[in-house]
Amino acid sequence: MHAFPKQLTPNLHDATPLYRQLATHIRQLITDEVVKSGQALPSERELMEITGTSRVTIRKALEQLIEEGLLVRRQGAGTFIAPGREQSGQRLTGFSADAKSRGESPSSVWLVKSCAKATEDEAKHLGLNEGDAVMRFSRLRLSDGEPLAIEHAVIPESALPSPDVVGDSLYQALREYGKHPKQGTQKLRASLASPIEAGLLTVKEGSEVLRIERQTYLSDGSAVEYTRSVYRGDKYVFVSELQDVGS
Fold first, then answer.
1. Among residues 217, 193, 218, which one has the least CA distance to residue 205?
2. Using one digit for the tens of pLDDT, what is the confidence trace for 98-145?
3. Of 3, 91, 209, 228, which alpha carbon lies 20 to 30 A from 238's?
4. Rounded Cα gap, residues 204 and 18, in angstroms
5. Nearest Cα to Cα of residue 136 among 93, 189, 119, 94
6. In Å, how far from its chain's centre is CA 160?
7. Which of 98, 108, 116, 111 is CA-nearest to residue 186?
8. Contact predicate 86/37, CB 8 Å
9. Closest Cα partner for 8 from 25, 33, 23?
């Protein structure tokens, strides 16, 4: 924890409350990856000595960062930098498979599972006519009981016999009925959580999120899925491999 001492000292001449200064300093260390996921913070007593502030100040700063999801407190062990999740941009996998690959337990809270008529936007992405039959799947995605993403998926009604055949994994259901996607495209952009999104993801309104739009296709090139997701920005890092393609 050698990175902490010099960078945590608050500015006593700054009008900003000391606990907010301390929280800002720790947040910046996490953002800049000076401290790593899973790393332990100094004890409250050590932080008091490092910063020259009171235990109350230390606790208020840590509580703020715990609420933001940047720190986690483990009973009897101390406070740690919250683990991040890395997701590859090359693999065509779903939330459930990604969570299991990290040794975590995925689950869902269903918001919508129904048949409907395609909107103009949905029809455009799925190669359908507006008003054609589709299935909609909206859910809150959790890993080890922690809300991480909100997912809104739309597929042609012909892909599955019923919305009810989808359990934890949409891709597993598509695979069972011979409609598993073989290729796709994905767009990511940074955004801020709306009030509803913040409530579902248990973060503050206006917190940073990643908006992901995915479109996938069968081997014959026909579209089989159009999904819009919102991921917690403090929990996910999307990784892409780069290769030298020459000048």
1. 193
2. 666 656 677 889 999 999 999 999 999 999 999 999 999 999 998 888
3. 3
4. 21
5. 119
6. 27
7. 98
8. no
9. 25
> Is-contact 125 185, C-beta < 8 A?
no
Q: What is the model's pLDDT at position 25?
A: 85
Residue type, position 220, single letter: D
In the chain, the amino acid numbered 172 is Q
User: The pTM is what?
Assistant: 0.61
Question: To 5 degrees, how large is the angle CA 238–CA 30–CA 35?
Answer: 105
Q: Residue 14: its pLDDT value, please? A: 81
Residues across the chain: 247
DSSP string computed for 182-224: -EEEEEEEEEE--HHHHHHHTS-TT-EEEEEEEEEE-TTS-EE
Q: How far apart are CA 33 and CA 160, in angstroms?
A: 44
